[in-house]
Design brief:
CATH architecture of the largest domain: 2-Layer Sandwich
Number of strands: 5
Strand order of the largest sheet: 3-2-1-4-5
Shape: elongated
CATH class of the largest domain: Alpha Beta
Largest sheet: 5 strands, mixed
Number of domains: 4
CATH topology of the largest domain: Nucleotidyltransferase, domain 5
Radius of gyration: 36 Å
Number of helices: 16
C-alpha cells in the first residue's frame, strides 16, 4: 500500500521531552489528560509513551530544563485543581453539617452517623469533619454488637413495621401505644429516639383558617356546649363542619358529622359547591345511619349552610338542639377542626389529586378503613373510635 502524503510535517519529540511528560503524568495530583493538554499533545500519545516506559523502551532521566512554558502552565493547572478540590471539600462539609444533629453526644453517636452516611460522603470525609479517627471508626464497625444494640435493631424492625402500616401517619406516641397493644415492653422515649435517629416523622401539616368578619346578627346564636356535661354514650353530642380541599386548579368541599363521644366520623360528603343542600344531605345520612334519640346536641360553626331554613327544618324534625360557636371562637368546634388537620396532614399533604372520583376513593379509604377502624386516638386512651364504642 503506498504511503499517504499529506504535506504536513510530523512533529518529533526528544527522549527528554517524553521522559518529562511521563514523569509529570505519574504524579498523584495530575492526570494524563491534564498533562497532555498542558504540553499540547494528544492524550493517546502520552499513554503510548507511558506504556513504552513500563516496557523499558526508554529509561527515566532527569532533565534540567522543562519544555518552554509548560512548567508555568502546569503550575496554573495545579492551582486550579487545588481550588476545585477545596471547593468540593467545603460543599461536602456543608452537606454533612446540615445532616449532623448529634453534637455533644459522644463518639458512639458520631460513629453511627458515619455508618449511616458513609455511602454518600465516604468514611474519610466524614471522620475528618467530625474530628474522629478512621481507625477508631473501623474498630467500632467491626466490633460485635452489644446486647443493647441487638435489641435496638430488633425493636427498630417492629417500629418500622408499625410506622409503615400507618403510611407514615404515626408519630412516636402512637407507635409506642401500638407496640404496647402487641405486648411489647418498651419505653416511649426509646421509641422516640429510634424514630428520630432513623428519620421517621409523622405526616402533619399546619392548617390555617381564615376568620370571617363578625356580624351583629350572629351574636344572639347560643353555644349550648359551654354549659353541657361531656357525653357518656354515643349519639348524645354531634359536631359538624366543612373544609375545602384543593383539586387541580379549583377547590372542593368536604363536610363531616362527628360523634363527640367516640370521635367517630358517622357521615361525610364531598361536593363541588357549598350550600344548604350539601350540609343537609350530610346530616341526613348521619340520622339514617345512627337514628339518635330526641334532644341530641348538634354543634357547628356559624356558617350560613347550617343556619339555612332547610337545615334548621331537618334539625327541628328530629328534635335536635342546635349549638353554634361563639363569634370568633373556632376552638369551640375543636374536635372537627382537629380531624380536618389530621386528614390534611396524614392524607392530603404533599399529594395532588386530579379527579373527584380519585379524591373520594382516598378519603373513603382513609375514614372508613383507617381513621375509624385502625387509628389510635390519644383522647380515647389510644383506642380506635369503633373499639371505644364497643367497649363502652
Amino acid at each position: 500500500m503506498p504511503k499517504m502524503i499529506t504535506g504536513k510535517k510530523t512533529q518529533r519529540y526528544s527522549v527528554e521531552f517524553k521522559v518529562k511528560a511521563v514523569e509529570w503524568s505519574y504524579q498523584t495530583h495530575r492526570s494524563v489528560k491534564g498533562v497532555a493538554e498542558a504540553l499540547d499533545i494528544h492524550p493517546f500519545m502520552l499513554s503510548r509513551w507511558r506504556k513504552e516506559y513500563r516496557e523499558g523502551k526508554f529509561a527515566m532521566k532527569r532533565v534540567k530544563k522543562a519544555p518552554a512554558g509548560a512548567k508555568e502552565l502546569m503550575k496554573e493547572r495545579d492551582e486550579i485543581n487545588r481550588l476545585k478540590r477545596r471547593v468540593s471539600e467545603l460543599q461536602e462539609e456543608n452537606d454533612i453539617l446540615k445532616k449532623s444533629t448529634f453534637s455533644g453526644r459522644g463518639t458512639t453517636e458520631a460513629f453511627r452517623f458515619v455508618w449511616k452516611h458513609r455511602g454518600e460522603h465516604g468514611v474519610k470525609a466524614l471522620c475528618r469533619h467530625l474530628s474522629i479517627s478512621r481507625s477508631g471508626y473501623y474498630a467500632w464497625a467491626s466490633r460485635k454488637p452489644s446486647q443493647r444494640a441487638a435489641e435496638n435493631a430488633e425493636l427498630l424492625l417492629k417500629v418500622r413495621r408499625v410506622y409503615n402500616d400507618s403510611k407514615g401517619r404515626y408519630g412516636s406516641p402512637r407507635v409506642y401505644q401500638a407496640l404496647r397493644r402487641e405486648g411489647e415492653v418498651v419505653g416511649e422515649n426509646r421509641v422516640a429516639r429510634l424514630m428520630r435517629e432513623w428519620g421517621m416523622k409523622a405526616r402533619v401539616v399546619r392548617v390555617y383558617r381564615r376568620m370571617t368578619k363578625l356580624r351583629e346578627d350572629l351574636k344572639a346564636l347560643p353555644n349550648h356546649r359551654l354549659g353541657a356535661d361531656k357525653p357518656i354514650a354515643v349519639n348524645q353530642h354531634w359536631s359538624s363542619d366543612v373544609t375545602y380541599i384543593k383539586l387541580g386548579k379549583k377547590y372542593v368541599f368536604l363536610a363531616v358529622v362527628l360523634d363527640l363521644y367516640s370521635r367517630r366520623i358517622i357521615s361525610w360528603r364531598l361536593g363541588e359547591n357549598l350550600s344548604a343542600d350539601f350540609a343537609k344531605a350530610t346530616l341526613r345520612e348521619a340520622f339514617i345511619s345512627r337514628k339518635p334519640a330526641p334532644d341530641l346536641l348538634f354543634h357547628t360553626d356559624r356558617g350560613i349552610e347550617y343556619r339555612a331554613h332547610k337545615t334548621q327544618a331537618l334539625l327541628n324534625q328530629h328534635r335536635v338542639r342546635h349549638s353554634m360557636n361563639r363569634p370568633g371562637q373556632c376552638t369551640d368546634n375543636a374536635e372537627v377542626e382537629s380531624f380536618f388537620k389530621t386528614l390534611k396532614g396524614e392524607l392530603l399533604h404533599a399529594t395532588s389529586f386530579v379527579t373527584m372520583r380519585q379524591l373520594r376513593k382516598h378519603i373513603s379509604n382513609y375514614i372508613e378503613r383507617f381513621y375509624n377502624s385502625l387509628r389510635l386516638h390519644s383522647s380515647l386512651g389510644y383506642r380506635t373510635p369503633i373499639e371505644f364504642e364497643g367497649i363502652n
